[in-house]
């Protein structure tokens, strides 16, 4: 505690230290007014970049996570495409079955009178 008191007493007695302190604060204020120095407490773009990017390993990990997310999206899209293809195949099969049954019905309708006559012939 005594060292601190001695230093503060020396700073108060010495006109040079107060003069240099006021000069540096004047320069700093002038720089702030010009826009060349950041205000006290404000972050520079470099500080923002450092905070945003983090360490090299964190950046690599973030890139790997993005790649993994993109691969998952790609797989989901491929699953959806396969599901659409399966749905189309099922619908085509249903349409084909419908036409096949329609043809059988048509053939049955054409053969029906002959069949009725044949059945009547057998029964007689």
TrEMBL record:
Transmembrane feature ranges: 104-123
Keywords: Membrane, Transmembrane, Transmembrane helix
Biased composition (Basic and acidic residues): 1-16, 28-46
Chain intervals for the UniProt region annotation (Disordered): 1-52
Domain of life: Eukaryota
Protein name (database record): Uncharacterized protein
Lineage of producing organism: Eukaryota, Metazoa, Spiralia, Lophotrochozoa, Mollusca
